[in-house]
């Protein structure tokens, strides 16, 4: 196991040109595996809404649901940095709301929180940072803005859009964010913008010019049932393996092959005989 990855290591990794690795985590079991693999950061993403909870969009996940998942992940990691995604509706309305929500995540043991957007959100970022909680920003595609049935789109495809994205990034830097997720931006555009952003950038569908990469764990493991974004690379096909395992289990149960002697508890023969006698007497 490596040493604990901390918020200060983000800037050091950028200076050293060492790519930052981040993956989403939603439960104790996956968190343990991610941590054992030496991943730098575990993000308890609001993507849990669609990947774990079966909701149509991320904006429908509640704070209570996110906190439950975050507590489970916290128990599972030792070395990775833990970032909690602030769900839609828990930080946008005021600086005070943002600080109060971030404080709950700090109490759980998060090293930082993630907040989507720029503009007025820059004020929320500044307030949270000033309260003592580091903030990972999020620009480009912002899933929390999508409503049910609304398609996601690539951001920064025009020069004007790309310049707005850069302005957003600079505003968030000025607000004090420690790093920044950049989602769904053309690789050629990000190659031009990345050198102009001072804080570490972590890409998802933004090419290889960012300082790090993140993937949704269910996508990475091949557990996604349905559309998989173009930028996803699956490193396993666990959904097929899981279905096969459940099918074999069902077949064994129905054929009474499971449980067999190897998977059953034993008892001394004399105790079985004694039980038989007592049952016969009672009958």
Provide a descriptive summary of the structure in words.
With 283 residues, the protein is of the alpha/beta class. 42% of the residues lie in helices and 13% in strands. It contains eleven helices and eight strands. Strands 1-2-3-4-5-6-7-8 form an eight-stranded parallel β-barrel, surrounded by six helices. Helix 2 (28-36) crosses helix 4 (63-76). The longest helix is centred in the middle third of the chain and has 17 residues, at 159-175. It starts with 6 loop residues before the first helix and ends with a helix. The relative contact order is 0.11.
Secondary-structure map with pairings?
Layout: H1 7-16, E1 20-24, H2 28-36, E2 41-44, H3 48-51, H4 63-76, E3 81-85, H5 95-108, E4 112-116, H6 121-130, E5 135-140, H7 159-175, E6 179-183, H8 187-193, E7 201-204, E8 212-215, H9 217-220, H10 238-254, H11 269-282
Parallel strand pairs: 1-2, 1-8, 2-3, 3-4, 4-5, 5-6, 6-7, 7-8
Short description:
This protein has 283 residues and is of the alpha/beta class.
Q: What is the number of helices?
A: 11
**What average pLDDT do the residues reach?**
96
Strand order of the largest sheet: 1-2-3-4-5-6-7-8
CATH class of the largest domain: Alpha Beta
| Named CATH topology of the largest domain | TIM Barrel
> Whole-number radius of gyration?
24 Å
Distance between the termini: 61 Å
Kindly estimate the percentage of residues that lie in beta strands according to DSSP. 5-15%
Key features?
42% helix; 283 residues; single chain; 2 domains; alpha/beta; 8 strands
């Amino acid at each position: 196991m490596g040493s604990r990855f901390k918020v200060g290591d983000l800037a050091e990794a950028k200076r050293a040109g060492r790519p930052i690795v981040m993956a989403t985590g939603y439960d104790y079991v996956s968190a343990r595996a991610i941590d054992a693999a030496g991943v730098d950061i575990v993000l308890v993403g609001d993507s849990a809404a669609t990947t774990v909870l079966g909701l149509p969009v991320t904006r429908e996940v509640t704070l209570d649901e996110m906190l439950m998942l975050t507590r489970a992940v916290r128990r599972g990691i030792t070395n990775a940095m833990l970032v909690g995604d602030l769900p839609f509706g828990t930080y946008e309305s005021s600086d005070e709301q943002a600080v109060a929500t971030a404080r709950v995540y700090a109490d759980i043991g998060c090293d930082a929180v993630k907040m989507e957007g720029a503009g007025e959100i820059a004020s929320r970022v500044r307030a949270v940072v000033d309260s003592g909680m580091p903030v990972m920003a999020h620009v480009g595609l912002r899933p929390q803005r999508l409503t049910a049935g609304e398609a996601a789109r690539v951001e920064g495809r025009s020069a004007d859009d790309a310049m707005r994205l850069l302005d957003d990034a600079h505003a968030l830097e000025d607000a004090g964010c420690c790093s920044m997720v950049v989602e769904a931006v053309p690789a050629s555009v990000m190659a031009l913008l990345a050198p102009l952003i001072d804080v570490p950038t972590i890409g998802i569908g933004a090419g290889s010019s960012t300082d790090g990469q993140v993937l949704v764990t269910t996508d990475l493991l091949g557990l996604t049932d349905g559309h998989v974004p173009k930028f996803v690379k699956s490193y396993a096909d666990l959904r097929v393996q899981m279905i096969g395992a459940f099918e074999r289990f069902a077949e064994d149960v129905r054929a009474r092959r499971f449980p067999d002697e190897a998977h059953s508890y034993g008892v001394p023969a004399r105790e079985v005989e004694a039980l038989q006698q007592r049952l016969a007497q009672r009958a």
